[in-house]
Specification:
heterodimer; A: 390 residues; two-stranded antiparallel sheet; globular; B: 114 residues; mainly alpha; rod-shaped
């Protein structure tokens, strides 16, 4: 065997030989997303694992995302000849609908539903923001040729709720999972840029300057009863939403009951972080040149923006109507927080209100529609699941 | 291409269910206010009444002539030209937190050069 032969064999066994043009582009996109996460700080906690998962899955021959290979032995039993890749097994947590509800457990433990309990009417704005979900669903299926299932998954981006989007995608359109997740988290990071122009266009200066009455304090009993009641009511009406709502409310009960502080802390921190790592990398790993580099991806990117915009508008418009009915007591800016990116959308409401009138604090009022939006998006996902089957 | 009437139906049902569920929740939560929530006003009224009582108790004890002399001297040294009569000295219950007291003490110590 000559030296040249050895080098030639070595080259044949490397990834360079196997690298396709599609994979090169995918690696480039992964690096771009890593840049956006690290330098531009676009939701880095999720975008960074997603982008790196994308990078790993598109390296040729590494087989991180390949399923195990089985062969039928002579006696007819199935024998595993090749175990699957690491990310393939992590992905089972998404595919089987395990990780998104566990993330919701952490979200519930971090969320204070107090502002919503103090002002039950704010719940309605959380419902109105789901308009973005359904309008986008119509556009995607009616005009752009997506199947109704795919359209539902694209529409749910407008709920601005990562775990719900991923949950619905794995159930209805797994082929879109990676694309939809990247679009959802990118736009979530862009909420402070997307929302304010829409909010200003739909409201008058006078409306933006409305000061709202202080919220009443909420008793501990109310805080404890709330997650239990929500779980029972929502799960009875919409059983498919039970995994998401149930875990969200369990996390919240950990927080509010005050007797399991250790569990509450674990759900908020360690468990949540571990799941984010598993979920992010494996969701990113579902992208490949075949499913990602096509016109559909471009449509999804545009439709995601439409979904966010319409959701914002839906919340603000209902805010205006409620302001009119209440005789000028509700600042319509809190409506945009019905988009459930917690707490970013509420912070955007606060910033826009303060630009109009420094010293106007509507943050806590905006948190009402904001947390209601989380429930609203989960309910919308439940509707799609019950119509299109899980 | 999907059937338009199907899409519209799903949209109506979807938005309808979202609103129905959340309105139901809003109604239930509105009920919380009456069932599980007590106005905290009574408690604050009680506290307000208790405070003057404490004051009276403190005021009765305050007949230490030496202390009155020290306070009068302090006022006199601060404003030498002012004429004044001490009629009443009332101790106010100290509600400032411990760190606040320490900070004040340190400020005094620093100004007095200790």
């Amino acid at each position: 065997m000559s030296l040249a032969q050895i080098f030639s064999d070595l080259y044949e066994s490397t990834g360079f030989k196997a690298l396709t043009s599609g994979e090169i582009i995918m690696i480039g996109i992964a690096c771009l997303l890593i840049y956006l996460a690290v330098v531009k700080k676009y939701e880095p906690l999720l975008l960074l694992p997603i982008a790196f998962g994308m990078l790993l899955a598109n390296l040729p021959l590494a087989g991180l995302m390949s399923p195990p290979v089985y062969e039928t032995a002579a006696n007819g039993t199935q024998v595993m000849t090749q175990p699957g890749g690491l990310l393939y097994y992590l992905y089972q947590g998404d595919a089987l609908g395990i990780f998104p509800p566990l993330i919701f457990l952490g979200v519930g433990a971090m969320t204070d539903f107090g502002p919503m309990i103090a002002n039950p009417l704010s719940v309605l704005m959380g419902a109105a923001a789901q308009l973005g979900v359904f309008i986008t669903y119509n556009v995607a299926a009616g005009l752009l040729g997506f199947t109704p299932k795919q359209a539902a998954v694209i529409g749910i981006i407008g709920g601005a709720d990562g775990p719900t989007t991923i949950y619905l995608a794995t159930k209805l359109a797994p082929e879109l999972l990676g694309t939809v997740a990247v679009a959802a988290y990118s736009y979530m990071a862009l909420v402070p840029i997307i929302q304010p122009p829409i909010m200003r266009a739909l409201t008058t200066k006078k409306e933006r300057q409305i000061m709202m009455e202080q919220l009443r304090p909420v008793s501990k009993t109310e805080r404890i009863i709330f997650p239990i009641v929500v779980t029972i009511v929502v799960s009875l009406i919409l059983p498919p939403a039970a995994p998401l709502i149930g875990m969200l409310m369990l996390g919240n009960l950990f927080r509010e009951s005050g007797v399991v502080e250790r569990l509450s802390k674990t759900a908020q921190n360690e468990l949540n972080n571990i799941i984010v790592i598993f979920l992010g990398t494996s969701v990113g790993a579902t992208t490949n040149a075949h499913t990602f580099l096509n016109a559909q991806t471009l449509y999804i990117v545009v439709l995601g923006l439409v979904a966010f915009g319409v959701a914002t508008a839906g919340g603000v418009i209902l805010g205006k109507i409620m302001n009119y009915i209440s005789g000028g007591k509700i600042n319509p800016l809190i409506g945009s927080a019905g988009v459930s990116a917690v707490p970013m959308a509420a912070r955007v409401s606060q910033v826009v209100a303060q630009q109009e009138m420094p010293g106007n604090f509507i943050l806590m009022h905006a948190m009402g529609p904001n947390v209601a939006g989380v429930i609203g998006t989960a309910v919308a996902a439940g509707v799609f699941l019950s119509i299109y089957g899980g | 291409m999907a059937n338009t009437s199907e899409l519209i139906m799903v949209t109506i049902v979807g938005m309808g269910v979202v609103f129905a569920v959340l309105i139901l929740l809003a109604l239930i939560i509105s009920g919380f206010k009456y069932v599980f929530y007590k106005e905290p006003e009574k408690e604050t009224v009680k506290e307000a009444q208790e405070v003057p009582e404490v004051n009276k108790g403190e005021a009765k004890k305050m007949n230490d002539e030496e202390l009155v002399a020290v306070i009068a001297a302090a006022i006199a040294s601060a404003n030498p030209d002012m004429r004044f009569v001490v009629r009443n000295i009332v101790r106010i219950p100290d509600t400032s937190p411990a760190w606040g007291r320490i900070a004040r003490q340190e400020q005094i110590n620093r100004l007095s050069g200790r």
